[in-house]
């Protein structure tokens, strides 16, 4: 690093912001490539369906089971512009995940130039962050909003500009609109802040006690604020922060009523007298969601007999994800933390804070989550990117020192480390996100993910159903996929919605006419009961028939020739499914 903060790359001198901007552009590109290729996960399909329902009816209410409402609101815009596709569903998450490396610039006064660039690289290309940035789920959103909010608070302390604090409040509120575990981030910040304060108060060597340091402590930003502004001015900033927070929360969480009648935000805009009722309904809905997620006891995980064994099972899975898909980041994070904690003359509070925040998240999230998914480690990897950047920056500095002293062995060793890390990250990222995004041996794949063999079946189904306009488009067959509840709110009404969620999304977004049927029990000539299709194979059978694979033989006999057969798993692995598509 030169004195003016430029990265000396002969024959050019690249400023740190320009390098971070280039990294961000690449991060966006790798997230957008083949974004709609992977078949929708059950969770993706569920949120996408409710977003589509909101667009169709104009009615909205917070459903805590699908987490925060941020994606439902912003995806109405994506769907309106791009159509109801998997690409459009994932676009907002991909863009926000791709822009996250820009947040590295918020720490430029606390980190060196190489460390800032390293932080951007880890946020851009870590395989776990890459995979779940291409996933219609709010984990990357809440992690990104929280990280940016933290960076803005750091900038507020560094610049003493109150508007950074107000922006931080907005991003904290956005974190709450993305996912309820934003409250866990605040708790992590309190814990990490306490540990940093403890280190500062009880540092030995100058003859002062912790109480002496506490009495003498006066933050420069607070000192400057009190000197330049009156108490009324400070109170005004606090009121503005509360107003911004409340506005964002109300904007996203408040109910909407499609007809314009009843309790809803739009009705309150035309009749302000309804606003208190809308606020009360919003608060009640939020309270109910948070009581569900944080108020009920957690069952033992992994079907274990007790909480400890269940926790250890989930922790083992989390460590497996980190070992196989984030080993460079985790290795550099541990190294960077140790180097900063024990080798630095005065450890930087930023690095210590982020380390405590990230490491406790590794241990804590397997305990707090109810269903395991590799996405929970996103909450740990984002803050751990800071000590990882310090670790990588230390290795790069060693390489620079070796180069300056003409130490060829030292330079070679550093180059081997850097090339190995880059190669491992690239190979793992390409394999997990592009080549095998639904494979059974990909630990980033959660079990409610259909395998990729479903994609050609869906494409075949869409062509055949749109080509045939004589009657119903799709027949869903069998008791596993059919419940026959014609009055259900979720559509198609006759299907067992929660067992066939991706199908519900794909059938509804194409507006297919769906009918359902279960096999009829009949008595054979030998006196045995058997289950046979009823109307399948008769005149007017829809061009597409979907069922569990166990019905393939019976359906094949009834349908006869002229159907192409697709088989795929609705989960990873499991729920073998068959789709018959009329070829003509």
Instruction: Give the helix proportion (percent range).
Output: 55-70%
Strand % is 5-15%
Largest sheet, order of strands side by side? 4-3-7-9-8
End-to-end gap: 67 Å
Q: Count of helical segments?
A: 22
Oligomer: single chain
Main sheet summary: 5 strands, mixed
Structural class: alpha/beta
What are the low-pLDDT stretches, counting only 5+ consecutive residues below 50? Answer: 522-528
Shape: globular
Number of domains: 3
Report mean pLDDT, rounded to a whole number: 89
Radius of gyration: 28 Å
Q: Report the count of strand segments.
A: 9
Protein name: TIGR03663 family protein
Transmembrane segments: 20-40, 87-107, 114-132, 138-157, 162-178, 184-202, 234-254, 350-368, 374-399, 411-435
InterPro entries: CHP03663, Manno-Trfase_MA4085_prd, RgtA/B/C-like
Domain Glycosyltransferase RgtA/B/C/D-like: 67-190
Describe the structure.
With 584 residues, the protein is α/β, with parallel strands linked by helices. It folds into 3 domains: 6-253 and 297-435, no CATH class; 254-296, no CATH class; 454-582, no CATH class. It has helices spanning 16-32, 42-57, 70-82, 86-99, 113-125, 127-133, 139-159, 162-178, 182-201, 210-216, 220-228, 231-253, 265-270, 275-295, 307-325, 327-343, 349-368, 378-404, 408-435, 454-467, 501-509, 552-559, and strands spanning 6-9, 12-15, 474-477, 514-517, 520-523, 529-532, 544-548, 563-571, 574-582. Strands 4-3-7-9-8 form a 5-stranded mixed β-sheet, sandwiched between helices. A two-stranded antiparallel ribbon has the order 1-2. The chain has a two-stranded antiparallel ribbon with strand order 5-6. The longest helix is centred in the C-terminal third of the chain and has 28 residues, at 408-435. The N and C termini lie far apart (67 Å). This is TIGR03663 family protein.
